[in-house]
Design goal:
mainly alpha
Amino acid sequence: MVLQIIFIQKKSKHPLSECSEYYLDDKDFITKAIKLDPNSIKFASKTLRQDKQIAILILKKDKKLANKYIFKKTLNEIK
């Protein structure tokens, strides 16, 4: 619910640009954020950008973003 409100109130900055590292490293939080806005992958922690489930999700949503933000090793492992 809170995440949806943040995205509704979105102005010029991406809502996750001001989010704490704790949430940017939280898999459930980032998964929900990506489902609402695939650009959220830009703010995910390095650990989550290496996660296979996150990689699969972002590949389904936006291949261009996946290729830019997901680690190449992770992409190769899931292809």
